[in-house]
Amino acid sequence: MRSSILIISFIAGILAISVVACTNPPGSAARATVKLDSAALVLRGEYLVTSVGCDDCHSPKRMGAHGPEIIPELRFSGFPHDGKLPPVDTNSVKNGWALFAPDLTSTVGPWGASYAANISSDGSGIGNWREENFMRAIREGKYKGLAGSRTLLPPMPWAVYRNMTDEDLKSIFAYLKTTKPVNNTPPAPKQLAELK
């Protein structure tokens, strides 16, 4: 009798776990958050920014002994406002290729030319943004995090980054707000026809 009760209790427990697991939306366990204080948010944000590759596209680079190296005084400033793209073979990108500029801050593909945004703490970057703008930019892929604005262009992987927890995104935003401000307004995107 006692072993039957244990078996029934075990089965009931498994069923309860299964029901909870099946009724929670996918990824809801991954979105569980832990409340961090402001210093911990900034430290976590720095860790995430350096781990998920924000510098890869948003920081101008120069060629060094081991390839492209971040220019520290321009970190997170995006494509330089006075920068020039190398000549582009638009026929290549019409056939599905994407091309990156040597420092990776701009990309040309079938959509046209896109330029990495300034995500430094300057007013020309995200210095004037509120947290809700940052959340909307990443969660919904909206330019400058403005409702009703255009969708962020490739190669910005917002559709992947939107799977981060709220705490992760708040941490990234908190860290970026502490970075050195760099005044730079990257150019607007261009259509392929404008690149000839």
Structure at a glance:
The chain is 37% helix and 9% strand.
Topology, element by element:
Elements: H1 2-23, H2 38-52, H3 54-58, E1 61-64, E2 67-70, H4 90-94, E3 99-100, E4 106-109, E5 112-115, H5 131-140, H6 158-161, H7 166-176
Helix pairs in contact: 2-7, 5-7
What does it look like?
This protein is an alpha+beta fold. The longest helix is centred in the N-terminal third of the chain and has 22 residues, at 2-23. It has helices at 2-23, 38-52, 54-58, 90-94, 131-140, 158-161, 166-176, and strands at residues 61-64, 67-70, 99-100, 106-109, 112-115. The protein contains seven helices and five strands. The chain is 37% helix and 9% strand. The strands form two sheets. A three-stranded antiparallel beta sheet has the order 3-4-5.
> Could you give the order of the helices and strands?
HHHEEHEEEHHH
**In angstroms, what is the radius of gyration?**
22 Å
Considering DSSP H and I runs of 4 or more, what fraction of the residues is helical? 25-40%
Total strands: 5
Strand order of the largest sheet: 3-4-5
Features:
196 residues, alpha+beta, three-stranded antiparallel β-sheet, two-stranded antiparallel sheet, 7 helices, 37% helix, globular, disordered N terminus
